[in-house]
Design goal:
globular; UDP N-Acetylglucosamine Acyltransferase, domain 1; mainly beta; 6-stranded parallel β-sheet; 193 residues; single chain; 10-stranded mixed β-sheet
Length: 193
């Protein structure tokens, strides 16, 4: 008996590792090589490839495909119908499975609904990618990214609130909800204490 929930319509291939307390909802397919942490939610119609790792307490909303070479650290949120790629220049007539590029989404990052993450990038801790954005470059920790292609327009707290700090420059700000302090120095944001 498993220590996680799987809806009867879902397919979990033999060999897949799924952590305690995870939930696999309607019409999900988890491939045999996937490694999924504890307390993960895989929404309706999610696909998880063989060469994928998903950390603890991630939420993958409906209609998301997590393809090979995508790695999510703990606490990543993938909004409905957001997109990962794993080949930079796909062609139907040319086999490029040996050209997959790694994508790393670090702890606590949010990927908004319908955004696209072009393969080969790293998205920093607690970064926030707005709905519909297209990420084609690395994203700094705590950065707020919007647009096509995405541009940084600000900084976000770990609580998920926008901080009143310039994109470039220096400053210090308290998160109004958590009281945590953040320092911007050398165009890099860090949480203090």
């Amino acid at each position: 008996m498993s220590n996680y929930q799987v809806h009867p319509s879902a397919i979990v291939d033999d060999g897949a590792v799924i952590g305690e307390g995870s939930r696999v909802w309607h019409f999900v397919h988890v491939c045999s090589g996937a490694k999924i942490g504890k307390g993960v939610s895989l929404g309706q119609n999610v696909f998880v490839g063989n060469k994928v790792t998903i950390g603890d307490k991630c939420k993958i909303q409906n209609n998301v495909s997590v393809y090979d070479n995508v790695h999510l650290e703990d606490g990543v949120f993938c909004g409905p119908s957001m997109v990962f790629t794993n080949v930079y220049n796909p062609r139907s007539l040319i086999e490029r499975k040996d050209e997959y590029r790694d994508t790393l989404v670090k702890r606590g990052a949010t990927l908004g609904a319908n955004c696209t993450i072009v393969c080969g990038v790293t998205i920093g801790e607690f970064a926030f990618v707005g709905a519909g954005a297209v990420i084609n470059k690395n994203v700094p920790a705590y950065a707020l990214m919007v647009g096509v292609p995405a541009k940084q327009i600000g900084w976000m707290s770990e609580f998920g609130e926008r901080l009143n700090l310039p994109v470039l420059g220096e400053g210090e700000e308290l998160c109004q909800h958590s009281g945590a302090s953040y320092v911007l120095k050398n165009n890099s944001l860090s949480k203090v204490g």
